[in-house]
Write the structure tokens for this entry.
Amino acid sequence: MAKQAASGKVRGSRTGRPVMALLDLLGRRWSLRILWELRDAPLTSRALRTACDEASPTVLQARLTELREAGFVELGEGGGYGLTALGRELCATFMPLHRFAERWKK
Amino acid sequence: MAKQAASGKVRGSRTGRPVMALLDLLGRRWSLRILWELRDAPLTSRALRTACDEASPTVLQARLTELREAGFVELGEGGGYGLTALGRELCATFMPLHRFAERWKK
DNA sequence: CGTATTGCTACGATAAATGTAGCAATGGAG
DNA sequence: CTCCATTGCTACATTTATCGTAGCAATACG
């Protein structure tokens, strides 16, 4: 087998590419799940924890902070986490996963 | 309120909803990245490792096995990992992330 | 006052990922 | 044949991430 694309700079491995940062952020545990659970309406931190199979608050808090810094999630005035406009937009991009998962269902 | 203690089984699939299993699988480290790097053409395990910023082969092998069992990735005859038809389909569903990430660009 | 929320954190235990090294199998060149 | 490079893949000790439980300060209501 030839060297193919393995020579040095392979596609997408250049540092600073936004999609890589995004894939890294979304690839951390509970990130996708949090966005998914907030897709309809805001949830309090504890309601979100319940929705996420009682995931430990440590990591949930970490993910929420990261997602807030990324501009996808915000903490509302009277409490409760919700998606920002950007977050809703992001959520919409991988919403087809739902239909895909239903067909996948191995 | 359900309190079922998780016991290292399949994470995120306790609800039985396929989308949860899918979010869990894709939420593991390097899963999204692997699919992303394979989006165009197959790569050998080592080329994939190079593309994934020299990620450790241990976890890459683990993810590849999981993605193969899920039916998204396959190992070609003459070597090299590539997406299955299902994998290409999945990859297409979150390909808009690229454009989104470019606009996001915090 | 007591009680019940909220968001959030400490911390030891456990699971996962990293980094380095190396294996057996395959194939091509000499 | 031997030599060597490459393939997919694994061992293992170290580091990092996550879990699970408990609890904090702030707020609100009676």
Q: What stands out?
A: Residues 8, 28-30, 54-59, 62, 79 of chain B lie near DNA strand C (CB under 10 Å from a C1'). Chain B has a mean pLDDT of 85. The longest strand of chain B covers residues 73-75.
